[in-house]
Design goal:
The chain has helices at about 10-20, 70-75, 90-110, 110-120, 145-155, 175-185, 205-210, 230-240, 280-295; strands at about 1-5, 25-30, 40-45, 60-65, 85, 135-140, 160-165, 175, 190-195, 215-220, 240-245, 265-270. The protein is α/β, with parallel strands linked by helices and about 300 residues long. The strands form two sheets. The protein has a seven-stranded parallel sheet with strand order 8-7-6-9-10-11-12, with helices on both faces. Bound molecules: NADPH dihydro-nicotinamide-adenine-dinucleotide phosphate and oxalic acid (OXD).
């Protein structure tokens, strides 16, 4: 029995020291040294190249080395009958909430303006509000969105969430459907997107959506880059419809050096690090899921490939 492990070279340095101890009873093969593909029954992957998973004839389970699975589902040769498990790790959930809190506060307290004032040695007080006077809308009220919402609420923000199916989340106003999304947008001075990448969410952050936000709203996108129409964001910032954007994910990653986002005075760029995977906590979670899978016990966080997340 063998496990294929494939991630980016940069992430591999984080995973490598923990791998052999994590899976007793399984040989771990590091891509591209896959050996005889017939022996591989589990594939733990981040951005597998198209056709890799289809080349493993006895594959029983695909494990995403991240919460998102768009990097797997986009493979046109993906074997349709092999189940997919996504990684949900409380360590990562905490990390995402830290990122959201940091950047919601950055927008709320006009930090981008104060940094610009500092660069110009300009001493000027801006109008200020308390968190309780600011509504944050979260697109994608799943594991990550709800945890961030709970923590933002503890700081005092009024938080509301939008999901695909109706969700009753005590303490929060929740919205569903197109009309619900528009109602949430109308009250969101800060909009956080934590949506999975699916056909329905591609290009969702566009001019029409920005136009429904209160004028001067701020955006945080830590979902996926293909959800954002980049030209529409630049236009909304130019017109003042949006005041600022914090972006962790991009259409092209790494973000090319000549991309206008890098130098835009009202955009904060981070290199897809909102919630990095953390091998010491992730590997025991994955190993336990594989044990449950082998024993025929129910495994949480299996992906619905038709739904797309
Ligand atoms: P979940 O599956 O737990 O939650 C997804 C949420 O989005 C659910 O509330 C779901 O609705 C909602 N949703 C999905 N499609 C739609 C739609 N068409 N319209 C409205 N709502 C929709 O995912 P997680 O919270 O664990 O992760 C979310 C995403 O965050 C990941 O897919 C990934 O892209 C991104 N991510 C980014 C990271 C980073 O470092 N930047 C790190 C980790 C994740 P419902 O509740 O009805 O199912
Ligand atoms: C993830 C990510 O999906 O890091 O986990 O983007």
């Amino acid at each position: 029995m063998a496990i294929l492990f494939k991630t980016t070279p940069a992430a591999m340095t984080r995973w490598r020291p923990h791998l052999t101890a994590a899976f007793s009873g399984h040989e771990v093969r590091l891509w591209p040294d896959i050996g005889d593909p017939v022996a591989i029954d589990y594939a733990l992957v981040w951005h597998p190249e198209p056709g890799l998973l289809a080349s493993l004839p006895n594959l029983r389970l695909i494990v995403s080395l991240g919460a998102g699975v768009d990097h797997i589902l986009r493979d046109p040769l993906l074997p349709p009958s092999v189940p997919i498990l996504r990684l949900l790790d409380p360590y990562m959930t905490d990390a995402m909430s830290e990122y959201v809190i940091l950047n919601v506060l950055r927008l709320h307290r006009q930090d981008i303006d104060y940094r610009a004032q500092q660069a110009a040695a300009e001493w000027r007080e801006r109008d200020q509000k308390n968190a309780a006077e600011r509504t944050v809308g979260i697109l994608g009220f799943g594991t990550l969105g709800r945890d961030a919402a709970r923590k933002l609420k503890m700081i005092g923000f009024e938080v509301a969430g939008w999901s695909r199916t109706a969700r009753d989340v005590p303490g929060f106003r929740t919205y569903v459907g197109d009309a619900g999304r528009d109602a949430l947008l109308a009250r969101s001075e800060i909009l956080v997107s934590l949506l999975p990448m699916t056909a329905a969410t591609e290009n969702i952050l566009d001019a029409a959506l920005f136009a429904r936000l209160p004028r001067g709203a701020g955006l945080v996108n830590a979902g996926r880059g293909r959800q954002l129409v980049e030209a529409d964001l630049l236009a909304a910032l130019d017109s003042g419809q949006l005041s600022a954007a914090v972006l962790d994910v991009f259409r092209d990653e790494p973000l090319p050096p000549e991309h206008p986002f890098w130098c835009h005075p009202r955009i904060v760029v981070t290199p897809h690090v909102a919630a990095e995977t953390h091998p010491p906590t992730a590997l025991p979670i994955i190993a336990a899921a594989i044990r449950d899978f082998e024993a025929g016990r129910p495994v949480a966080n299996m992906v619905d490939a038709k739904r797309g997340y």
